[in-house]
Amino acid sequence: MLEVKSIGQAASQIRSLRLIALLYGLLAYAAFLVTIVYTVGFVTGIGVPKTIDTGPYTSVVDALSINMLLMALLLQHTGMARKWFKNWWTRYVPNYIERSTYVLIASLCLMLLFWQWRPLPAIIWHVEDPDVSVMIGTLSFIGWTLVFASTFLIDHFELFGLRHVTANLRGRGIPAPQFRTPLYYKFVRHPTYLGFIIAFWAAPAMTIGHLLFAAVTTTYIFVGIFFEERDLLQLFGEQYGQYKKQVSMLIPWRKLDR
After folding, report:
1. Which one of 122, 170, 218, 256 is most buried, by most CB atoms within 10 A?
2. Would you kindly state where each structural domain of the chain is located, as residue ranges?
């Protein structure tokens, strides 16, 4: 009788831990949603209290130093995504919340950047023609749309950790990644990154601060692509190798087999 009671208590504890993991995953996903929506406003200057061109003013040297330190935090995104880091990290963090933890830390790093960012408001270019300005602003939002749509084309909820915690709640293993190339992925290997580049650079008014943000994030994107493609080749082998030969990295066209 005591043995049955002990088994029941253990099962109850397991269910509780799985529910806590699910709530943690939902919290991490909520942090991501808040952060990505704020990022749109931060870059475009629309709908948020603090944008890329507002905030406390400091000297140019101080602003550059602070902003570069803040942007150095974005290296976390690339580092934590690597297989060697995951192998070490999952010794201490359960595998089913590893992705959610990654998402949460990345979101917190961006929140800190938004909070402490120092504006550099000197104008690099400013489009005077209102029609052209609207066209450029529309292009920026097309870039953001591409970012969001691309994540759903593959597996949005796996990408941001919810698939892992829901599988754990049901007592199932995490599904193995599948190689797929839906819609945009038939013409460009990294449509999400392409969307970010368009969104960051399509600005009717470009300040030094905005230029710094766009240039550094674009550099990080290319660094991230380098490591990500190396990991994908290890994961999917010749299947990804053939895809890489046939489909362009960022500029949407399909390569021709030779």
Report:
1. 218
2. 2-246
